[in-house]
């Protein structure tokens, strides 16, 4: 019997000169309050609802940040894959709420010139600012390569 390796969750091989900055599911800590309430109320059985909901949210999202694009895969039964080229990104914000800081996660809020998804939020990222800095460097390089200037209106 032949063993067939599983395909990568998103996309195929990277383009020439493209590097993966981060790839994975959001951490359960992105929904920390809901998870904590789930464990506290688990004996009452309502907590199971919270825990299953967090698990499904976590497993239904997959993100891949590279030096050229941002890919997102959503869905459990049916799948949807979106790709956003970095040169289309207008702004990236690094955010950490008080709960995010306590649980050791962060989020990126990305504003793009994409009518399908003008604002995208990536939850459950590592708490360090280094990923944000590397991503912003890639966005700026991609925009410079295309000759795109920021114009505030």
Q: What does it look like?
A:
This protein is of the alpha+beta class. The protein has a domain at 20-25 and 63-146: Pleckstrin-homology domain (PH domain)/Phosphotyrosine-binding domain (PTB) (PH-domain like), CATH 2.30.29.30. The chain contains four helices and seven strands. The chain has helices at residues 32-40, 46-59, 98-103, 130-146, and strands at residues 20-24, 61-66, 69-74, 80-85, 89-95, 106-112, 119-125. The strands form two sheets. It has a four-stranded antiparallel sheet. It has a three-stranded antiparallel sheet with strand order 5-6-7, with helices on one face. α1 (32-40) runs antiparallel to α2 (46-59). The longest helix has 17 residues, at 130-146. The protein is elongated, with a radius of gyration of 18 Å. The chain starts with 19 loop residues before the first strand and ends in a 7-residue tail after the last helix. The model is unreliable at 1-9 (pLDDT under 50).
Nutshell version of this structure?
It contains 4 helices and 7 strands. It is of the alpha+beta class. It has a domain of 90 residues: Pleckstrin-homology domain (PH domain)/Phosphotyrosine-binding domain (PTB) (PH-domain like), CATH 2.30.29.
Helical residue percent?
25-40%
CATH topology of one domain: PH-domain like
Q: What is the overall shape?
A: elongated
Contiguous low-pLDDT stretches (5 residues minimum) are 1-9
The proportion of strand residues reads 25-35%
Order of strands side by side in the largest beta sheet?
1-2-3-4
CATH level-1 class of one domain: Mainly Beta
The succession of helices and strands, N to C, reads EHHEEEEHEEH
Query: Main beta sheet, described?
Result: 4 strands, antiparallel
Q: Whole-number average pLDDT?
A: 83
Q: What is the CA-based Rg, rounded?
A: 18 Å
CATH architecture of one domain: Roll
Q: CATH H level of one domain: which superfamily?
A: Pleckstrin-homology domain (PH domain)/Phosphotyrosine-binding domain (PTB)
Quaternary organization: single chain
């Amino acid at each position: 019997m032949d063993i067939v390796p599983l395909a990568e969750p998103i996309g195929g091989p990277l383009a020439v000169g493209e590097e993966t900055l981060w790839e994975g599911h959001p951490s359960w800590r992105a929904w920390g309050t809901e998870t904590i309430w789930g464990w506290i109320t688990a004996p009452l059985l309502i907590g199971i609802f919270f825990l299953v909901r967090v698990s499904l949210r976590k497993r239904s999202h997959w993100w891949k940040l590279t030096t050229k694009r941002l890919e997102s895969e959503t869905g459990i039964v049916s799948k949807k894959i979106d790709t956003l080229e970095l040169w289309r990104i207008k702004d990236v914000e690094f955010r950490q709420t008080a709960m995010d800081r306590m649980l050791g996660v962060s989020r990126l809020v990305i504003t793009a010139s994409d009518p399908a998804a003008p604002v995208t939020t990536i939850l459950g990222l590592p708490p360090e600012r280094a990923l944000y800095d590397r991503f912003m460097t890639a966005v700026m390089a991609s925009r410079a390569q295309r000759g795109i200037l920021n114009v505030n209106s």
